[in-house]
Design a protein that fits this description.
The protein is an alpha/beta fold. It has helices spanning about 15-30, 55-65, 80-85, 100, 110-125, 135-155, 170-185, 210-225, 230-240, 250, 295-305, 330, 350-360, 370-375, 400-410, 420-430, 455-485; strands at about 1-5, 30-35, 75-80, 160-165, 185-190, 200-205, 270-275, 310-315, 340-345, 360-365, 380, 430-435, 435-440, 445, 450.
Length: about 500
């Protein structure tokens, strides 16, 4: 088998781990493996949007030292050798409308969506002003086309049976997936698995594919031979107790069982859980929300239509992941006013799970709260797209009027819990255990029992740099928290 591995997303051990695992497996099977990577050729990438030379050097050292731990013969090639064969394309400077930008294609490559997806994740703003980020957009645009053409050229001249790439949502990575689609070559998209000890593989689709996730959820459930309900329940219990290592950071600073001081059990308490929109805002049509153009609009309309309802209280719990974010997706929430509406800040010690357990109805835009509410035997109304859309455990209204009708229905019953159990089981079990790779920390890993990093000196520089970045980030977060509080 002829294998091409395209890897430019390997700054951290957790993102290079899946690559190393599949490469080593193919080498053991005596397959022909070619690794296509970079050493600073890209004008911008997801981990280094400003093209810092030191970051490029650290990233290059990381993958060089990691590849030295591989056992077997492989061919290593750098992108610079492929970029010489064609000229770079340019984007029109006149496009400043996000919807127009999202619709742009380069051949079969949805480059508008891909570049926007990268941009919103870098700046953490789901509705960016494109004119303010034109330089970065141009860099992402050009490097993505370069990659698309480089990989297309290799696929056209080579005889590859399969290509591997990580994530494929971001511009530089999605270019690889689309090039494979155009050449009809199998593309296996790698991602982390259920935890840092596992990885996952998505054949010819983004890991964000709702259709494939639904297939995966049902397949895992149907093929299981263990006590699936017990596994799922244990997963949700660990999350609610902040034991789950991936998600504990969202609730670890919340006080167990603490409810808002205004909470009144005699009222009909409606709790809305919003979520960060940057990851899914530019994935594709499968994630477009036909109900509301954005979360602020949806929340505003719901609050307005419930403000004169006697004995109704509406709470908005801002997702803890939005702590320290200061843009219109946050500031406009505080323009929503009603006597029976209250906002719970993301850093508040008020317990997400206490609110969920005490609510009469839970509304969400697709965060985990929407499905966890089902486990707590609560009616859960879904206001956006998510992986558990089609599992039958949530109310999925098709119009705003239907949302209001459901919320006002005092006899609204919870949906069947089976879909929530399937979803929890998938989250607890999906992915493949590592056999050859082991993550030590973000900076270091082991492959075939051999330790690797970017070099001792470079690793020290990385750790110092990370502490400095976290210090700056913490100052920015605290400043933004204060700005948000001033809006109250």
């Amino acid at each position: 088998m002829n294998v091409l591995v395209y890897t430019t997303y390997h700054f951290n051990s957790e993102t290079i781990g899946p690559y190393l695992e599949v490469i080593q497996k193919h080498l053991i099977e005596n397959d022909e493996v070619e690794i296509l990577t970079c050493k600073g050729e890209l004008s911008a990438c997801q981990i280094n949007p400003n093209h810092s030379k030191i970051v490029c050097k650290l990233c290059t050292k990381m993958h060089i030292n990691a590849f030295k731990c591989l056992e077997g013969s492989y061919n290593l090639e750098y992108l610079e050798n492929s970029f010489k064969e064609f000229s770079r394309s340019q984007i029109s400077q006149d496009i400043d409308d996000i919807e127009e930008f999202k619709s742009i294609y380069y051949k079969n490559f949805d480059i508008g969506l891909a570049v926007l997806s990268s941009l919103v994740s870098i700046i953490r703003d789901p509705n960016p002003d494109l004119s303010k980020h034109q330089l970065l957009i141009n860099k992402l645009w050009n490097s993505s086309i370069d990659i698309y053409e480089a990989i297309s050229s290799k696929l056209a001249t080579g005889n590859y049976d399969v290509v591997y790439v990580f994530n494929a949502r971001f511009a530089n990575l999605r270019a690889c997936l689309r090039a494979c689609e155009a050449q009809k070559v199998k593309c296996m998209v790698l991602e982390e698995g259920r935890d840092r000890k596992s990885y996952s593989v998505f054949p010819n689709v983004l890991p964000h594919s709702r259709k494939y996730r639904t297939f995966l959820i049902n397949e895992l459930w149907e093929n299981s031979t263990e006590d699936r309900v017990d596994v799922a329940q244990n997963y949700y219990n660990r999350r609610s107790q902040s034991i789950d290592i991936f998600n504990a950071r969202f609730t670890e600073n919340q006080e167990l069982n603490l409810l808002p001081s205004s909470w009144d059990e005699s009222c009909r308490n409606i709790v809305i859980f919003n979520s960060s929109e940057d990851e899914f805002v530019s994935v594709g049509k499968e994630w477009e929300n036909e109900l509301y153009p954005n979360q602020v609009t949806g929340i505003s309309k719901i609050v307005k239509d419930l403000e004169n309802e006697n004995n109704f209280k509406v709470y908005l719990r801002i997702h803890p992941n939005l702590k320290g974010i200061y843009n219109e997706s946050i500031t406009k929430l505080f323009e929503i006013k009603a006597k029976n509406f209250e906002i719970i800040l993301p850093e508040s010690p008020i317990s997400t799970y206490a609110m969920m357990a005490s609510a009469d109805v839970v509304l969400s835009f697709g965060s985990s709260a929407g499905i966890e509410a089902v486990i707590m035997n609560k009616p859960s109304i879904l206001l956006g797209k998510c992986f558990y859309n089609d599992l039958g455990s949530t109310y999925n209204p098709s119009s705003h009027n239907e949302v209001i009708e459901l919320v006002k229905n005092q006899n609204l019953e919870p949906k069947p819990v089976i879909g929530a159990l399937k979803y929890g089981y998938m989250l607890a079990r999906f992915g493949n255990d590592y056999q050859f790779f082991q993550r030590i920390n973000t900076f270091e890993g082991r492959l075939n029992s051999k330790k690797f990093n970017a070099g001792e000196l470079m690793t020290i520089i990385r750790k110092i740099g990370r502490k400095f970045r976290l210090f700056i980030k913490e100052r920015e977060i605290n400043s933004n928290i204060q700005k948000v509080k001033e809006l109250i």
